[in-house]
Amino acid sequence: MTCHNCKADMVKAGKGRNQVQRYKCQQCGKRSTEPQAKPFGEDVRLKQALVISILHCLLEGNSVRSTARLCDVEPRTVLTMLEHAGKNCERIMGRLLVNIPVKDVQCDEIWGYVGKKESHKNPWEAHDNTIGDAYCFVAIERDSKLVLNFALGRRDQATTDAFVEGLRGATANQRFQVTTDGFQPYKSSIETTLGGRVDYAMLIKTYAQPEEEQRRYSPPEVVDAKPVVIIGNPDMNKICTSHIERQNLSIRMGMRRMTRLTNGFSKKWINLWYAYCLWFAFYNFCRVHKTLRVTPAMEAGIATRVWEIEDLVAAA
Length: 316
Hints:
Blueprint: E1 10-15, E2 21-25, E3 31-33, H1 48-59, H2 64-71, H3 75-96, E4 104-114, E5 132-141, E6 147-153, H4 157-170, E7 176-180, H5 185-193, E8 198-207, E9 222-231, H6 242-254, H7 269-285, H8 296-300, H9 309-313
Helix pairs in contact: 1-2, 1-3, 2-3, 3-7, 4-5
């Protein structure tokens, strides 16, 4: 280790109360401690073990305030760690989820809201897109269970275009199959962005009219599912959205913000985005899939081991 004052070599001089190695300069007598890697590569003063505990709680379905009570920190601290983790996970996935060979991709949207539900917005909030409905578009590879891309926004053409453009960057330039539900903006987006390299089909579902007591809390029953070929020659036996819908269930079970009939919903749009970034990075790289017995990233060939939360905390 080199002295910051006179650039001379330093020698070990015991350890401090926190068991961090201390050094002393033989020339000027200046003392300093061994540089420590800080979580996320940012100026975070919390110990890494506490940061990991906070993220563990958030990933196991705890709310911000319950996490603050469990880890004995302020709720604001939990939100700050969520922000750092979300930004770091976004950088990690932006670097690794590119040009991935895929065979069968399923896309769907999961509904949530920020601040209040769309029907509860005041007249002066009607054009504020950071309040109300927040749909997360998700694309998953059927065989590896890898989440290839996601986008948060309104359920409209603009968000669909951005989502499909991100899916194009995440997949290798080879032909693969895509299945979506009957949401019509998918058709123009996929035809424009991926039309030359996909076999695309929609699965049009027909729902039964729910009874009065089931309309509020129970999903409607699917009475028919009709596959419709849009582009190319997709395998009719693989036109399905069951895997992406199971992923939606995992999201609602693992993210407190997406749990229905609670007050744990997001109050700010950006915090919901950071929560999604953290969840999908954890799902892809850290969580061992039960049927695969490895993580989706290992199955897809972009990771060689099961990541720990420490790897998401380390600087991207």
